[in-house]
């Protein structure tokens, strides 16, 4: 007889889920793993629960379906919080299943934590699963997770519920699957608390008001600039934005997460937007800023000082307290671009001016050093790898040259934690991405501090036989923090990591390991890594002296 676990797995499959990640305990998640195996839904064992959540986030970004992770109760649930918080602030659809004590053990205190209290602040919804309402609960969980702004949902699973008989259930089809949703969030139509027609009417009225307000705000400007963000990462979004830029001669900057929506080699690509210093020349020249799926969570916490008015369009409304949006249109990106088509005045931008500004940005972070710097590692590695590989980027000082210099030509070909900006992201994210498409290599760019936080996931990559190249920028310090200490005239205390033999550590997990201290050694290491089937690691022993000037050039 079918169980509640079978029902949950069936709904996950209908939503397009292609893998589950986690560290199992001895409770209900064993039933979930067993049901997944019967349904041929892979379960991927990770070394930590946080890594499981991050891998699931990357899996969702690349596949377009919700990510799924599971944990045991108590310590497993607590360990997953950073990864779940990453899903919340990076707008990733994620379902988190946790074990919990069965009702019969209500008086037991061993390993008992209040999971609802732990997860409520970092999820869109936290709910305790019951056998009676399992179907409606999983459907609502999927709807909430995938309704823009996407985010994590927590389902607490008592130890005796998932093994209960569920009987027969009707097929849902694709009613809340990602493929069936409009970018405006049609999953709202399947929430259990409001009829679909009422939601549609509400959204229609809001869209009309937004379109009128947008039309009033965008006329009469001749130097508009698109600021493309995380809410515009579908391929259909990218196609609409590129066509708009070509047709109207409008340049576009992209946030870290939107890298590739407008390719780096596109004539109207204007660089990276973070609310920093390096992009200010074009921001100051623009007389109208248009946030296309731009989420304020993506921007560095600095006062907004742009003088040009800014309007917004995207799949969900966003707060206007940090970025003073004068008008907002909640709509899918293709719809937004059509609304703008007949509203804008002719643009006076030229491709030459955009190329000149982009060259100036790149020149400002160029490395004059003759030693192996982070910039040089990115330049050499991207020549060999960028055309065919996906890349994941960890938080840290290497992030600035990586995001600016690594060329990307499609959405979600560069994965990064931007809203939370957590360290320990690149390797688990590479695992999640590689499992979606095993034929495409993934490059993980990480500092040695970030890799220390998740290095055990090399065992996961080896076990899954994934073609991942980890490039670790080894300088034996938390360099970004040290730069900030120096800027405040503080002693460099608490930032020295000490030496790690990364190649020997990689080899101990069964991965190939290589070391490079100059250009020639790095090129040889890249050759050897490309010849490996399975995971490999390149320890790039870099000169960190350019990190300070790079940070000042990018952020001021």
What distance separates the N and C termini? 63 Å
> Radius of gyration, rounded?
24 Å
Catalogue the unreliable spans.
173-202
Q: Which CATH class of the largest domain applies here?
A: Alpha Beta
Structural class: alpha/beta
DSSP E strands, number: 18
Can you tell me the CATH superfamily of the largest domain? Thiamin diphosphate (ThDP)-binding fold, Pyr/PP domains
Mean pLDDT: 91
**Helix content class:** 25-40%
In oligomeric terms, what are we looking at?
single chain
* 3D shape: globular
Record keyword descriptors for this entry:
about 550 residues, alpha/beta, Rossmann fold, 3 domains, six-stranded parallel beta sheet, about 40% helix, globular
Question: Can you give a write-up of this model?
Answer:
This protein is α/β, with parallel strands linked by helices. It folds into three domains: 177 residues, Rossmann fold (3-Layer(aba) Sandwich); 163 residues, TPP-binding domain (Rossmann fold, 3-Layer(aba) Sandwich), CATH 3.40.50; 191 residues, Thiamin diphosphate (ThDP)-binding fold, Pyr/PP domains (Rossmann fold, 3-Layer(aba) Sandwich), CATH 3.40.50. 39% of the residues lie in helices and 16% in strands. It has a six-stranded parallel beta sheet with strand order 2-1-3-4-6-5. A six-stranded parallel beta sheet has the order 9-8-7-10-11-12. About 5% of the residues have low confidence.
Summarize the model shown.
The chain has 556 residues and is α/β, with parallel strands linked by helices.
């Amino acid at each position: 007889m079918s169980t509640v676990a079978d029902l949950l797995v069936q709904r996950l499959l209908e939503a397009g889920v292609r893998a589950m990640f986690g560290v199992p305990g001895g409770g209900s998640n064993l039933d979930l793993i067993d049901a997944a195996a019967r349904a041929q839904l892979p379960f991927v064992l990770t070394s930590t629960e946080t890594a499981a959540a991050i891998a699931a986030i990357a899996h969702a970004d690349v596949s377009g379906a919700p990510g799924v992770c599971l944990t045991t109760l108590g310590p497993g649930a607590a360990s997953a919080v950073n990864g779940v918080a990453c899903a919340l602030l990076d707008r990733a659809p994620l379902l988190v299943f946790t074990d919990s004590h069965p009702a019969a053990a209500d008086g037991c205190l061993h390993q008992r934590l209040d999971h609802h209290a732990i997860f409520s602040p970092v999820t869109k919804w936290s709910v305790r699963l019951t056998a009676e309402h399992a179907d409606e609960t999983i459907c609502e969980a999927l709807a909430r997770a995938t309704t823009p702004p996407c985010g994590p949902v927590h389902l607490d699973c008592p130890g005796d519920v998932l093994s209960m008989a569920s009987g027969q259930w009707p097929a849902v089809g694709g009613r809340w699957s990602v493929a069936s949703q409009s970018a405006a969030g049609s999953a709202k139509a399947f929430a259990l608390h409001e009829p679909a027609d009422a939601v549609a009417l509400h959204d229609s009225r809001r869209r009309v008001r937004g379109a009128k307000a947008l039309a009033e705000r965008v006329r009469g400007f001749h130097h508009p600039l698109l600021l493309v963000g995380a809410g515009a990462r579908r391929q259909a979004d990218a196609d609409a934005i590129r066509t708009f830029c070509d047709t109207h001669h409008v340049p576009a900057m992209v946030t870290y997460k939107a890298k590739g929506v407008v390719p780096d080699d596109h004539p109207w690509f204007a660089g990276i937007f973070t609310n920093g210093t390096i992009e200010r020349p074009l921001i100051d020249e623009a007389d109208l800023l248009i946030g296309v799926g731009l989420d304020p969570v993506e921007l560095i916490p600095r006062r907004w000082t742009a003088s040009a008015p800014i309007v917004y369009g995207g799949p969900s409304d966003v707060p206007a307290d940090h970025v003073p949006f004068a008008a907002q249109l909640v709509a899918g990106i293709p719809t937004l671009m059509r609304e703008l088509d007949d509203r804008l005045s002719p643009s006076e931008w030229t491709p030459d001016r955009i190329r000149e500004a982009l060259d100036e940005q790149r020149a400002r972070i160029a490395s004059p050093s003759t030693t192996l710097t982070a910039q040089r590692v990115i330049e050499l590695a991207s020549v060999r790898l960028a055309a065919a590989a996906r890349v994941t980027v960890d938080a840290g000082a290497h992030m600035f040259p990586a995001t600016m210099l690594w060329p990307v030509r499609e959405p979600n070909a560069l994965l990064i934690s931007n809203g939370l900006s957590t360290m320990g992201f690149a390797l688990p994210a590479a695992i999640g991405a590689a499992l979606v498409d095993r034929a495409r290599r993934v490059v993980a760019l990480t500092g040695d501090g970030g890799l220390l936080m998740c290095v055990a996931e090399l065992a996961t990559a080896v076990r899954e036989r994934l073609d991942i190249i980890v490039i670790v920028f080894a300088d034996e310090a938390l360099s970004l923090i040290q730069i900030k200490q120096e800027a405040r005239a503080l002693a460099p205390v608490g930032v020295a990591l000490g030496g790690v033999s990364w190649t020997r550590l990689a080899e101990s997990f069964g991965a190939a390991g290589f070391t490079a201290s100059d250009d020639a050694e790095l090129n040889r290491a890249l050759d050897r890594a490309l010849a490996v089937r399975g995971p490999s690691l390149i320890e790039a022993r870099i000169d960190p002296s350019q990190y300070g000037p790079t940070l000042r050039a990018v952020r001021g």
